Amino acid sequence: MVSLCIVLVAISFVVFALSGHSLVGLVIGVIVLDIGVQAAQISNQSRIYALKPEARSRVNTVYMVVYFICGAAGSAVASLAWHAFGWVGVCFAGLAATGLAGLSHSRSPLKKA
């Protein structure tokens, strides 16, 4: 499931790059991005809860702290990409981050899908 989510997120950044001046394209990209990210979030939380069921609260805290730190780092990278390369740079940065997520997922000992 997470593999499919990563593909959806990658597709959304391609849509963004190709339709940066089209409201319809941006809406489609946002919908695809949201589906991919939300489905991955649910799948990942299910996986981490299974690691240590008696410590769900602590495991979720660590997961969410890392999730938000990475989100903030992504925002910072996107800001730098915007200033250096504009919209295409932001889309490339998002696609590169998605590639890193795919690489990390492919090497994960927890990988199920």
Automatic annotation (TrEMBL):
Gene3D superfamilies: MFS general substrate transporter like domains. The keyword Transmembrane helix applies. The chain crosses the membrane at residues 6-37, 58-78, 84-103. It comes from the Bacteria. Keywords: Membrane, Transmembrane, Transmembrane helix. The keyword Membrane applies. This is Major facilitator superfamily (MFS) profile domain-containing protein. It comes from Caballeronia mineralivorans PML1(12).
